[in-house]
Amino acid sequence: MRALIFAAVIAVAGCSSMNPLDWSHRVEVQQGNYVTQDAVAKLKPGMTRAQVRFLLGTPLLTDPFHADRWDYKYSDAKGGKVDPASDKLLTVYFKGDTLDRVEGNAQPAPPAKQLDASAPAQETKKP
């Protein structure tokens, strides 16, 4: 009987390393609207809601109690913790259907891709 209990304890201890409920591996989670400074620079007072939506995308938050305000929130969580440098909130205010003002922070523009001059050129085949 003791041998059976000992074997059961060893088996259970061995399975604990394969526990599916162990969430020690954390992934990077990006949430919200990634609005760049370039896109915000294109906003001009008097633009319509449709024009703002075209430039910035659909807002993450639309408050039914503040219909003249759109909030664009973005955060980046790495390892289960929000990176404070990536936590941004951009708020767009309207008067009626036209843009009044913009407040908050936007993300910097992503770095431009550099072409590698040492890479061989790729030819396209003509039919």
**Helical proportion, percent range:** 10-25%
How would the global form be characterised? elongated
Mind summarizing the main beta sheet?
A: 6 strands, antiparallel
The helix/strand class is: alpha+beta
Structural write-up:
It is elongated and about 85 Å long. The protein is 21% helix and 26% strand. Strands 1, 2, 3, 4, 5 and 6 form a 6-stranded antiparallel beta sheet that branches. A hairpin with a 2-residue loop joins strand 5 and strand 6. The protein contains 3 helices and 6 strands. The protein is an alpha+beta fold.
Q: Any key phrases for this structure?
A:
127 residues; alpha+beta; 6-stranded antiparallel β-sheet
Secondary-structure blueprint:
Layout: H1 2-15, E1 29-32, H2 37-41, H3 49-56, E2 61-62, E3 69-78, E4 81-82, E5 88-95, E6 98-104
Q: Short description, anyone?
A:
With 127 residues, the protein is an alpha+beta fold. 21% of the residues lie in helices and 26% in strands. Strands 1, 2, 3, 4, 5 and 6 form a six-stranded antiparallel β-sheet that branches.
